[in-house]
Amino acid sequence: MAIQIISSIEYAPVHSIIGFETYPDGTSRVMVEEWKPIPMHPASGEMETNSKEDASGIYFSTTINARLKEGIVSIPASILKVKLCSGKEFILGSPSIPTRSHENSSLTRDLFEIEYVHVSKPWELIP
User: Fold this and answer.
1) What is the DSSP string of the chain?
2) I need a surface site. Which of 21, 73, 114, 118 has the fewest CB within 10 A?
3) Which residues constitute the domain of residue 100?
4) What is the tens place of the pLDDT at every residue in 31-45?
5) In degrees, to the nearest 5, what angle opens at C-alpha 126 toward C-alphas 125 and 127?
6) What's the total number of domains in the chain?
């Protein structure tokens, strides 16, 4: 899958997930108590998904990175809602295999990074 430019990222801790359904066509329907925004500069992030294969089968590795407006504290085990500049929204993570974030800071910038490995690609969110 080609690199895609991210407009915004929001997260919901696993304990706040009310409903989570995925479908064979690669879509999902998710209900959470509240989506919490990650303070990123719009269009400063990228999402890339690659398929990989090993002895246990095919899996997908999705990498997300974005430039933050300000430093953030570590995010708990969560699912992410990633909105692309194209308008499409994707869900990364699940209640059973949540995402875990990494923040990198330097004197000049703060970065938010995630690498998520799963047997499925990120699910497109059904509005």
Assistant:
1) ---EEEEEEEEEEGGGEEEEEE-TTSEEEEEES--EE--B-TT-EEEEEEEEEETTEEEEEEEEEEEESS--PPPPSEEEEEEETTS-EEEE--SSS-B--EEEE-SS-EEEEEEEEESSPPEEEP-
2) 73
3) 4-125
4) 999 999 999 998 999
5) 110
6) 1
